Amino acid sequence: MELNRTPRTARAKYGDELRLKRIAAKLTQEALGEQVVCSPTLISHFEAGRRLPSPDDAQRIDRALSTDGFFARWLEDLDTKYADHFAAVAELERQATLIQQFALSLVPGLLQTDGYARALFRAYRPNHRAEDLDRDVVIRTERARILDGPLNPVVWTLLDEAVLRRRVGGAHVMAKQLGRIADMAEAGRLRLHVLPFGLGAHALQESLLSLLGFEDAAPVAYVEGLLTGHLMDDPALVKASRTAYDLAASDAMSHQESVALVRAAAEEHEHGQQ
Length: 274
What we know:
six-stranded mixed β-sheet; 12 helices; about 270 residues; 434 Repressor (Amino-terminal Domain); 2 domains; single chain
């Protein structure tokens, strides 16, 4: 039976409850925004699960709705360590039974080693502190715990060859990163395919893409750019994204050939051949 229900995150449930409590209090989004000292648009984002209120905003919401600290207490249990555009995706990853990911230029976050992730975070920031880098590396690598189980989620990883060639963090870091990917592929933890440079244009050349499948909910798709991301649950958009993924995968190297190429690239990095 086809599943049409969109997977619900804790953020979405928080927003739904906020909307219900606001309606029960006979307040419009504009009226609640006035009492919380924020725009009605921000209230709309809270109710849609796209944003979370700050602790101060949550306290003002409780006062406006006479909810006795309900939203402030619940906020403490919600995961706020991710950027707003990615937080829902991180939560849905933990629910997914199937993850199909494509990376255009960087190793996907779920597969990054500490050294690779640290080098990326250092490059993103003109001014960085060691403690900030440590925190962000821990947050990113904690996501990979969903791969500790031997079966779920099933993971397919499609990489543009550019991912293998750009030396992030130096030769040793890059060699270790590619070695980890190859190890996981050979151990059966992920299915690996590479889109080689010689292929030329392919269906996913414009964007990172992740497809998430669930046991009891409809699939979603996620694309990301600089400081932004877009989670799609519209069936037509998800279907188009899956078609693009399938087209690119059909042009990719086989699993065995891809593992061999990743191993060879790791050796080239380790011996300074790039």
